């Protein structure tokens, strides 16, 4: 890549956006930012607390502001929260300001990868994680597909293999 374009990783929770994003940034010599971590840093509180105090709507407003700023950086790999694409503004910024890679995964893999994670507010205190993930997928998958330049399934590959695949695809990417 002669010029370092931004790379945005989108997809559901448990798809591997943060893990793959770190690997990808390292391979490409780019900066890496996890938008959820950035929101927590700026708020001085974790996402679960923000959800408890401000609700999902308050969190989404914070997310929109942070993504507007982050997507204006140059040469950065950004992993977004699973629900970032719910905002039309976020979708517009992601589409216009870099290469959008949709990391797809199955509900089975999501259940497996998120079952011990206590930092997922939409799954907290819920008995039927699978049903929640299925509902989220119905709502969000079409939005991921709408703005994706490249779609990859992350179910069976290691983060390093996925990152190398992305590098190969980006080298051939023309917009």
Automatic annotation (TrEMBL):
Q: Which InterPro entries match?
A: P-loop_NTPase, Shikimate/glucono_kinase, Shikimate_kinase/TSH1, Shikimate_kinase_CS
Provide the GO MF annotations for this entry.
Answer: ATP binding; magnesium ion binding; shikimate kinase activity
Keywords, comma-separated and alphabetical: Amino-acid biosynthesis, Aromatic amino acid biosynthesis, ATP-binding, Cytoplasm, Kinase, Magnesium, Metal-binding, Nucleotide-binding, Transferase
Protein name stated in the entry: Shikimate kinase
Q: What is its EC number?
A: 2.7.1.71
Q: Where does Mg(2+) bind?
A: 18
Q: What's the source species for this entry?
A: Actinobacillus delphinicola
The biological process GO terms on file are: amino acid biosynthetic process; aromatic amino acid family biosynthetic process; chorismate biosynthetic process
Instruction: Spell out the Gene3D superfamilies in the cross-references.
Output: P-loop containing nucleotide triphosphate hydrolases (3.40.50.300)
Chemical reaction(s) catalysed: shikimate + ATP = 3-phosphoshikimate + ADP + H(+)
Which regions span the lipid bilayer?
Answer: none
Q: Which cofactor does it need?
A: Mg(2+)
Q: What does the Swiss-Prot or TrEMBL cofactor note state?
A: Binds 1 Mg(2+) ion per subunit.
- Entry's PROSITE patterns? SHIKIMATE_KINASE
- Compartments, as annotated in UniProt: Cytoplasm
Primary location: cytoplasm
| Protein family per UniProt | Belongs to the shikimate kinase family.
Q: State the HAMAP family in the record.
A: Shikimate_kinase (MF_00109)
Function, as annotated, reads:
Catalyzes the specific phosphorylation of the 3-hydroxyl group of shikimic acid using ATP as a cosubstrate.
GO terms for cellular component = cytosol
Subunit details for this protein?
Monomer.
Annotated PANTHER family: SHIKIMATE KINASE, SHIKIMATE KINASE 1, CHLOROPLASTIC
> Which positions are annotated as binding ATP?
14-19, 120, 157
Q: Give binding positions for substrate.
A: 36, 60, 82, 140
Task: Write out the pathway annotation from the protein's UniProt entry.
Answer: Metabolic intermediate biosynthesis; chorismate biosynthesis; chorismate from D-erythrose 4-phosphate and phosphoenolpyruvate: step 5/7
